[in-house]
Amino acid sequence: MTVVQRIEGDTRITGNLQVDGTMPVYQRSELKQDAAAVFAVPLVDLRTWDALATNLPGTPAADDLGLVGGTFATNTPKVSTGDLKNTTTTRYGRFQFQVPAEYDAGETLTLRLNAGMETTVASASTTLDVECYKSDRAAGLGSDLCATAAQSINSLTFANKDFTITPTGLSAGDVLDVRLTITVTDSATATAVTASIGAIEFLVDIKG
How far is residue 191's CA from residue 40's CA, in Å, rounded to a whole number? Predict the structure, then answer.
């Protein structure tokens, strides 16, 4: 006959604990959810949007954002539009992100970018936009999952800009193909008008 004993209150064991029998096994679905866990996207992961085998250039040009390394131990890397004063110009960068194994399927997934302007704001506007597609694993894509419209980053104070990714149908291991778009509209500005992204991260609801 199996005898079940219950111990109530605090218990201290001095020495090793040996269990004869089986320990309970918990599935990931039974664990407590941790909301908005941070998964950083290194800026070096960004690629030329229409030539994915090519890293972002060190100097922004044409329709490509640039990856500016700065001086080690003095500056942190950033993704930059370069000086776009007196122009209306759109520049892009692209990267992939694998939904982590801990992702709580169907729960919140947010792309956060910390961005702003250097030196001078644009006379009209500067916007940051996100497009996000799920790979179907057969070289195809579904619809744009980004549910947030373009946001203004026309401020000398860098700030977090959150873009909601529609979680329907997403699960651990899915690969997201993301394009970032910065558009600067400026006229008659004498000093440099440069937009930059200082950090990229996904906020993910996870279990385990």
Answer: 32
Q: Could you tell me if residue 16 is inside a domain? A: no
Q: Does residue 13 fall inside a structural domain?
A: no
CA dist., res. 48 & res. 79, Å (int): 12
Instruction: Report the alpha-carbon distance of residue 1 to residue 36 in Å, rounded.
Output: 48
Question: What's at 154, amino acid-wise?
Answer: N
Q: Which helix (H) or strand (E) holds 33?
A: strand 33-40
Average pLDDT over residues 112-118: 98
Strands 78-80 and 193-207, sheet pairing: antiparallel
Pairing of strands 66-68, 151-152: unpaired
Question: How many Å apart are CA 84 and CA 204, to the nearest integer?
Answer: 34
Contacts 24+ apart (CB under 8 A), 24-30: 28/102, 28/207, 28/208, 29/207
Does residue 48 sit in helix, strand or coil?
A: strand
Length of the chain, please? 208
In a domain, 23, yes or no: no
Predicted structure pTM score: 0.87
- Tell me which residue of 109, 121, 45 sits closest to 81, measured CA to CA: 121
Q: How confident is the model at residue 165 (pLDDT cuts 50, 70, 90)?
A: very high
Parent domain of 78: 31-207
Say which CATH number the domain at 78 has.
2.60.120.260
80 burial class (0-12, 13-18, 19+ CB within 10 angstroms)?
A: buried
DSSP tag of 139: S
